[in-house]
Amino acid sequence: MAEKLKIKKGDKVVVITGRSKGATGEVLRVDRVTSRVVVAGANKVTKHVKPSRTGAGGIEEREAPIHISNVMHADPKDGKPTRVGFKFLDDGRKVRFAKRSGEVIDR
Fold first, then answer.
1. Cβ distance 105 to 76 under 8 Å?
2. pLDDT tens digits, residue range 54-83?
3. Helices then strands (H, E): number in the chain?
4. Considering the entire predicted model, what is its pTM?
5. Are 59 and 81 within 8 A, CB to CB?
6. Which of 28, 47, 53, 63 is most exposed by smallest CB count within 10 Å?
């Protein structure tokens, strides 16, 4: 069963542990089954690609998935890692907000 996550595609996150610790980037892809995310510019790996009809082969550098527990939302105000909470706005919408600054993350 896929679990509900607080991180979505397009969110700005900070890597808090591992080889890419401190890297900040946008979430490109979320895998809810394995609880992993792909972050732009973080956890780069080299991949040897065979030549095909569509493109030449060679050594490519691409982002590998990171476990969701190793990333945190970047605070919209200062960019530092923050926890996320949910609250209801006056118009009835349920939105995510940064607990560090109280700033709303959802647009």
1. yes
2. 989 999 999 999 999 999 999 999 999 999
3. 0, 10
4. 0.85
5. no
6. 53
